[in-house]
Amino acid sequence: MAAVDEAIRKAKILVEALGWIRQFRDRYVVIKLGGSALDDPDSVRNCLSDVIFMEAVGMRPILVHGGGKAISRAMESAGIQPRFVHGRRYTDDETLEIVGRVLAEEICESLVDEIRRQGGQAVGLNFRSQNVLEGERLTLAGDAGEQIDLGRVGEVVNVRREILEATCRSGSIPVLPSIALDSDGGKLNVNADTAAAAVARALRAEKLMFLSDVPGIFRDRTDPSTLISHLQSDRVRALIEDGTIDTGMLPKVDAALDALDAGVRKIHIVDARVPHSILLEIYSDKGIGTEIVR
Ligand SMILES: Nc1ncnc2c1ncn2[C@@H]1O[C@H](COP(=O)(O)OP(=O)(O)O)[C@@H](O)[C@H]1O
Ligand SMILES: CC(=O)N[C@@H](CCC(=O)OP(=O)(O)O)C(=O)O
């Protein structure tokens, strides 16, 4: 009897998901995997199995990844001290070679390999294969209006969406590192949160999901009961101003607000360490992280 009850419970879960599966069929979902999540192989495997599931039930997932922690480790092994200016890595030519190798060769290839190992199809799209992100150098102004030199740091100015659309149509999951090419074919190091938002904006994605190593946005980071499950964009601005949101969460919420302004329906910040956090967030009636809407 217990076995039958268990089977019925599982069937109910499938039925609960059916409505969401229908609603999101053929919709683009951009998933950003951050360096914090990428450092834990179990989190990566679990996230990728969810992404494969999404593709199998008719959604169009696109993976955009960072790898800031791995880049810093590789720089330190090469005897270069990482330096961040306004949250961006100062990127000289030597650093750029390391960023290209770590993101496009090591991390992108390992994500594609793992998706294939789990029975899904994936294609790495970057300057080594087929480039999707076109960029230009990012210029930031200092307090006195002076120009801040970030080296080869860029922002995305165009996304070749036709390549993403064709890849998704063919049943493959596109995997993109946060590197853009400028009009001369030179590499630019782009913050991965902003790269993911640029992709979501270009595709008018249904969702943009940030997978990190926190359950979501907290009102008080020392108190787990203060997780905010639903946020409206105007409230996000207030949380930035009062200092509740800072450090690594800042580029995520900045990118989230940009994406919402451009027509992306919903932003999710979820914990990559929780098994199946993506599926729980999308296909169940009650999500587990923080969702942000306009
Ligand atoms: N209000 C907040 N709630 C939760 N995390 C926050 C908040 N403000 C800042 N953070 C920080 O943001 C970090 C996530 O950003 P980051 O480490 O850069 O992630 P990733 O590597 O996934 O891009 C969290 O580990 C936490 O320290
Ligand atoms: C310009 C800039 O800062 N680029 C980032 C790109 C990687 C990234 O953003 O990785 P996470 O998502 O893991 O932080 C960097 O070099 O660290």
Automatic annotation (TrEMBL):
The keyword Nucleotide-binding applies. One of its GO terms (molecular function) is acetylglutamate kinase activity. It is found in: Cytoplasm. InterPro entries: AceGlu_kinase-like_sf, AcgluKinase_fam, ArgB, Asp/Glu/Uridylate_kinase, Glu/AcGlu_kinase. The keyword Lyase does not apply. Residues 28-271 form the Aspartate/glutamate/uridylate kinase domain. Its EC number is 2.7.2.8. It is an enzyme of class 2 (transferase). Keywords: Amino-acid biosynthesis, Arginine biosynthesis, ATP-binding, Cytoplasm, Kinase, Nucleotide-binding, Transferase. This is Acetylglutamate kinase. It comes from Maioricimonas rarisocia. The lineage of its organism: Bacteria, Pseudomonadati, Planctomycetota, Planctomycetia, Planctomycetales.
